[in-house]
Each structure stands twice: as C-alpha cells, then as structure tokens.
Amino acid sequence: MLILDKEVFPRLKLCAGWITPEVVKDLEMDVAAYPYRFLTFGRMHAYLRGVHLPLPCVQHSIRRFEFDAWLLERSGVRCVQHNVRHIEADPAGGYTVDGEYHCRYLIGAGGTRCPVYRSLFREANPRAPELQTVTLEHEFPYDWRDPDCHLWFFDQGMPGYSWYVPKANGYLNVGIGGMAERIKRSGVDIRQHWHHLIARLDRKLAKGAHYDPVGYSYFLRGNVRVVRIGDAFITGDAAGLATRDMCEGIVKGAPYDLADVTGASLGGGIASRLLDWAFTRGVGAAAA
Fold it and tell me: CA-CA distance, 48 to 161, in Å (whole number)?
C-alpha cells in the first residue's frame, strides 16, 4: 500500500478537528496512549439567531495534522510526495499513475480536487454547484480560557454557521462556513461575516487574538451514486460526502465501514433534517 500526495504528508490541514465518541470507538483509540493533543469538552453552546442553548455532551477535539500523523504511523503505510497528473486503466487490470506507479486498487481521497475523481469519476458523479460550500478558517496558538465548543447558526443571515473549537495545550480553531451560492446571492461577502465573528470573539472568548484565515471549498452530499468504477474508488470530499446538517464527515449509510471519520453529524433526526433544509433550502436529494 502506498499514499501519493502532492505535499509532504501528514501536512497542515485546516479542520475544526471536532471528533465524536463514535470515532474513538470505531478506530479503537486508546485515548490515554494517544501521543498528541486531545481535548474532551463536556458542554457545547449553540446559538440560533441569538437564542443561547447550552447542551451537555461528550465530544473531543484534535489537531488534524497530528491525527493524520497518528493514523499514518499506526497503519505503517509508506507515503511519497508526488503530484498526480495522469491516471490510466491498464488493459490487464489495475492502474498506472504518471507512468511510474502501478496498482491493482486505486482509492481517491484527495479532497475536492482529487485527481482520481477528476480522471475517472467526474462524468459519472457530476457535482451540484448549489451544494458547494465556502469556508474561512484559522488554527493558531492561543491561551484560551473557555474549554467548551461554541457554534453560531445563521448569525447575521449567514446561510451556515461559525465555530470556536479549543484544542489541548493552547491551540484554538475558529472558522465560518456556508453555502457558496446563497452567500453570493445575499450580497454579503463571507469576509464580512468573518469580521463579524472575530469582533464577537474579541469581546470575550479570544480577546486580542490575531487572525490570518485561509479559505477553501467542498461539496455537500447530493446524489452520490457511483463510488466505484472497476477497481477504483473515491471517498470523503473526493466523492462529496459531507453531511447535510453540520457539513462535515462521512455520511452514515455510505458504502464504507467507518462513518463520521473526520467530523460530526447530528445523526439524521429532526434537528439534522431541519439544518439540512435551512442550509440548502431543499436542494437536491437529502442524504439517506
């Protein structure tokens, strides 16, 4: 088994780093033996158009590049820095990548710009532009005082939500994300929403913090019908499997053994379905 990545892997990857107890269970993690930052927060604060809902919970946060490093170390898989440009199916079976790497099975997990999706799945799985998200995020050293997670939904008319997620040993992740087309139609740029968020944080939760946010985009789950062609597979953001409620993770019910590996979902109940509708206004087919 071999991992090809155009950057050195594991690498810094922007991610709120919120993982659920199910992730810990599914990965059979020994939290006490985990060698990197791991924080458990017992309360979540949700704000819905100004209404504060403190919710008891058991959730965890990690730094994503450390989590990736741990998974890589545990698997023992070799990783090679290589920018994949051309993939072709071999007549005798398997695949050749850039005339240099050969494999029987090929898995595309390279995010929105995954070369496996681009080369083999784009026609079979066209992406719905109305399900595209846009995000601004920053993770940085900060001596936070509040160990809880805070989430603001639809603040100032934002078709999405913003977050404050503390990490162990003095790190903090803050960000904002929503539906790209609806933000564009609203006439309020996401950076205006970002400035509103940091002004809020500066009043209490992260006084005096300095930010340098980075933007990225990915797709929520629509009619994902094809995740395997021959012996090639796609998963995660390469397949567009982010949940329709919290816009994270891998949807339960997708044809994989592990669900919600990198994020959170509300599990398909009434809260999940209401958030799906509020974010997308019923666009496309809801996730199963």
Answer: 9
